[in-house]
């Protein structure tokens, strides 16, 4: 590691891809396995990234017969920072849940859905949330709207992404399939529950 330029440790976009794969494993991986698990990059590109990171000391190399095994060097000064970055999605879910749990009017259900839930969003993607209001609570209720607005602002402050909010009443759920079939499909496929009953239970409010 160049201690005068530690920020130069990750010099190429594929370096972060490789580190993400290695941070998710507790065993050594071959270069071929890293390339297979990586969401992008050719095997040659991944191999070059592994070599760069090994020279920086953040990746360890171990001979295993005719192969070389690679693993994240968790003793490296940068390892904890790398693992924190890899686990940012889990940190977002935890922080979002804690924030919602402090609302004055608690939602019947809250979940993350869409690209952030699937794990394929980027810096231009909205981070989408579903909130289900208790029966009889008007959408224009001042306290409820203030909670949602403050939450959306917090998501942007935490991530840099815009928050997309779907605000439904319990009364909307029985007809959701007819009124917004695309939303229903996305929720059933991707939703990650944050508060309240699971998405299957909350959507089982009547015929769709």
Query: What's the arrangement of strands in the largest beta sheet?
Result: 6-5-4-7
Percent of residues in helical segments? 40-55%
Number of domain modules: 2
Given as residue ranges, the uncertain stretches (5+ residues, pLDDT < 50) are none
Cα shape: elongated
Please identify, by name, the CATH architecture of the largest domain: 2-Layer Sandwich
Mean pLDDT: 88
SS element count, helices? 10
Notable traits:
Beta Polymerase, domain 2, 208 residues, alpha+beta, 2 domains, Arc Repressor Mutant, subunit A, three-stranded antiparallel β-sheet
Question: Short description, anyone?
Answer:
The chain has 208 residues and is α+β, with helices and mostly antiparallel strands.
Topology:
Elements: H1 13-23, E1 29-30, H2 31-37, H3 43-56, E2 59-64, E3 67-72, H4 79-86, H5 88-101, E4 109-113, H6 115-118, E5 127-133, H7 142-159, E6 163-169, H8 176-179, H9 181-190, E7 192-195, H10 199-203
Parallel strand pairs: 5-6
Antiparallel strand pairs: 1-3, 2-3, 4-5, 4-7
Helix pairs in contact: 2-3, 5-7
